[in-house]
Specification:
The chain has one helix and 13 strands; from the N terminus they run βββββββββββαββ. β3 and β4 form a beta hairpin.
Length: 248
């Protein structure tokens, strides 16, 4: 493996056992086992980037799409970054810093029927802010296109049939690898998506997707990371983040 830069962030999930109102689906926390590691591969090693972005203690390194501080909806507490549903949408948030190639592992859980996701290589395309997305979605028993399922590379690549997310309210493990134009999505210890940026198959899928009118979509080497708000309770924890040279 190539030499990699290492950011290890270990977080302990806080417990949210209080009864939520009808606007906020209750997420269970009782006697859950921790999810399996994102993969059995040896963790990358290298220079530690000891920033607070993913520690779940503060949102000072995150901002709104208007480059304003995050003041509503999203919270960082007890090692988790989470969104609690409310009458008003909080909106997506993005990192203040841009990143190039990286490997990221994290845990997530979502409310029943919830929709969210983590986007990367995010930038502006005209008046839209877009990026590649690790989809997080509970269809609540409904049929859904494979390219919209959990762990898909949203609207582009469906996850492998081995992709088995846990029920709503339970923690899942995930990993995203973006290295030398290769993308991998992992779910609960299994690699479920592989893609190559810019190859013929990628370009064909872009042309058939909702991104076909975004000129040069995904061709930027650097971009922000986004946590999306689609009106659902969603929780993240245990981020581990490695970046690769050259940095952005």
């Amino acid at each position: 493996m190539h030499r990699r830069s290492f950011l290890a962030v270990s977080a302990i999930g806080a417990t949210f056992g209080a009864t939520q109102c009808c606007l906020s689906p209750r997420i269970t926390h009782a006697s859950e086992q921790d999810p399996p590691p994102a993969s059995s591969e040896q963790s990358p090693t290298g220079k530690l980037d000891d920033t607070s972005v993913f520690k779940g203690e503060s949102l000072e390194d995150w901002m709104t799409l208007d480059h304003e501080p995050v003041k509503f909806g999203w919270q960082a507490k007890g090692g988790e970054i989470f969104l609690k549903r409310s009458l008003l949408r909080a909106g997506h948030i993005v990192t203040r810093k841009e990143y190039g190639d990286f490997e990221m592992s994290f845990d997530w859980k979502i409310a029943k029927g919830g929709n969210s996701g983590l986007k990367y290589r995010v930038r502006k395309y005209g008046d839209r802010t877009l990026g590649c997305e690790y989809q997080i979605y509970d269809p609540n028993g409904q049929q859904v296109d494979g390219k919209n399922k959990t762990a898909s590379l949203y609207d582009l690549y469906a996850p492998d049939e081995t992709a088995q997310p846990k029920p709503p309210g339970e923690w899942n493990s995930a990993k995203i690898v973006l290295r030398d134009g290769k993308i991998e999505h992992w779910l609960n210890g299994i690699r479920v998506v592989r893609a190559t940026l810019g190859d013929a198959e990628w370009e064909r899928r872009i042309a058939e997707s909702k991104f076909n009118d975004a000129e040069n979509f995904s061709k930027n080497r650097c971009g922000r990371i986004m946590l999306t708000d689609h009106g659902s309770d969603v929780f993240y924890r245990n981020f581990q983040f490695w970046t690769f040279e050259p940095n952005c």
